[in-house]
Design brief:
This protein has 330 residues and is α/β, with parallel strands linked by helices. It has two domains: 3-175, Stage V sporulation protein AD (Peroxisomal Thiolase, Chain A, domain 1, 3-Layer(aba) Sandwich), CATH 3.40.47.40; 182-329, Stage V sporulation protein AD (Peroxisomal Thiolase, Chain A, domain 1), CATH 3.40.47. It has ten helices and 15 strands.
């Protein structure tokens, strides 16, 4: 039975297993450090579809199919489907749910949706309400950029602290039994507000939320950073990661040995000129693709999300943010 520990942390007593997972990416992601670990790489951003939104939907459906195949499951085995993305009214998730045909829970955690989905899938399985839950998320550079900032066709000049939205999708099959990595703990984040208003400076806007969730996780569990082989945040990029490091130092936490950010890991030198990657797929494909294929025993994945919209930005509102953490054992 799922129980709470401390202020915000969930303990999964049965430790649900990640029975299968699927990762797909676009051409830039395929050329980067994560590329060799992806299950499928598309050669272009259109992916044979007539719109980039349809291409993003295709990626999510593909990731789900791969996760099911790896887990040796059929669609009829899925008790619930949890998914979230960045597009208006999470349309990639909704249409993917139509394709899958399973009972659907749509979520919106922005770029934290990867951890939020796994967190909730673990609760459903650990509570006995489900035996198999599929959790998925996606993002596409050309859909997210024109929704939140500028269409890429405009060729807008971006500042060095901006980030490149990752094109990709990922899905996990979380089950009550089987072999694979296990979800042991999760810390639900709080919405934080640094007072940022620049939609091009997501890393700094989300950094306090990431730091707060990491600190809360350590306080709730009595653990220290060194209890994890690696702690990764979702998509803060180079600039946001530096802010987290500074905040941690102020709180007496040393993250210098084992803390990285997925936004820095997803692309290689020379691929982009800004601060790194972002988007729902950033933490998802780096974690499931690259990190799951290393020799780690315990990971803390802290996916971050900016909880703004085009409307709130146009009305001059701040950009609040959130971060959810999931501890995974191998």
């Amino acid at each position: 039975m799922t129980v709470r520990k401390g202020k915000q942390t969930i303990v999964y007593t049965t430790k649900p297993v990640i029975l299968g997972y699927g990762t797909v990416g676009g051409p830039k992601e395929g050329q980067g450090p994560v590329g060799p670990y992806l299950d499928k790489v598309y050669p272009d951003l259109a992916m044979g579809e007539k719109s980039f939104e349809l291409a993003e939907r295709q990626m999510m459906v593909s990731a789900i199919e791969i996760a099911l195949e790896k887990a040796s499951l059929s669609r009829s085995n899925v008790d619930f489907f949890i998914a979230g993305d960045l597009l208006n009214q999470i349309i990639s998730s909704g249409f993917s749910a139509l394709n899958l045909g399973a009972p659907f829970l749509g979520i919106y955690g922005a770029c934290s949706s990867f951890a939020q989905g796994m967190l909730l899938a673990g609760i459903l399985v650990d509570s006995g309400a489900a035996e198999v839950v599929i959790s998925a998320t996606s993002s596409h550079n050309n859909t997210a950029e024109r929704q939140y900032r500028y269409p890429t066709e405009y060729g807008a000049q971006l500042p060095p602290w901006s980030q490149h939205t990752v094109t990709g999708a990922a899905a996990t099959a979380v089950a009550v039994r089987g072999e694979g990595p296990r979800v042991e703990l999760a810390t639900v984040g709080r919405v934080m507000d640094l007072g940022m208003k620049d939609p091009l400076n997501m890393g700094v806007a989300m950094a306090p939320a990431a730091a707060d969730t990491i600190f809360t996780h350590m306080e709730d569990t009595g653990r220290k950073p060194d209890d994890y082989d690696l702690i990764v945040t979702g998509d803060l990029g180079k600039v946001g990661r530096e802010v987290v490091m500074e905040l941690a130092q102020r709180q007496g936490y040393d993250l210098s040995r084992n803390y990285r950010d997925c936004g820095e890991l997803v692309y290689g030198m020379g691929q982009i000129e800004n601060a790194g990657g972002s988007g729902c797929a950033c933490s998802a494909i780096v974690t499931l693709g690259m990190l799951f294929n290393q020799n780690y025993k315990r990971l803390l994945v802290v996916a971050t999300g900016a909880m703004h919209s085009t409307t709130s930005c146009q009305q001059g509102e701040n950009i609040p943010a959130i971060a959810h953490a999931v501890s995974i054992e191998f």
